[in-house]
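Hi there, hope your week has been kind to you so far. Do you reckon you could talk me through the fold, stretch by stretch? Thanks so much in advance, here it is.
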Amino acid sequence: QVPLVESGGGLVQAGGSLRLSCAASGLTFSRYAMGWFRQAPGKEREFVAAISWGGVCTTYADSVKGRFTISRDNAKNTVSLQMNSLKPEDTATYYCAAKSGGNFCSTILNDYNYGGQGTQVTVSS
């Protein structure tokens, strides 16, 4: 099991910002595409953002486009998700995931090989 550890979640008012981070260990991080998914209570896990191994490819869910930015630091084995203009509907547990064959980014959860334990984001209105 490859550990992916998320951090940075918390409680924020609508319109505020949070920055999530995911630290990876035990894999050649630069060979993996990375993604962020989220799951709200009673709902299925959904795609949020993804980035290819070199950062050339990034893709976002329509619901977060223009508000969230995914980035990665291969030297530090980390991927981040900067979340601005947060809305109550962004409330969810956020998970990072790693996908081998990282030269393109995927929106499909089943394409990913490893996932973290999640970090809770709560946006109050």
User: Anything to note?
Assistant: The radius of gyration is 13 Å. The first strand starts at residue 4 and ends at 7.
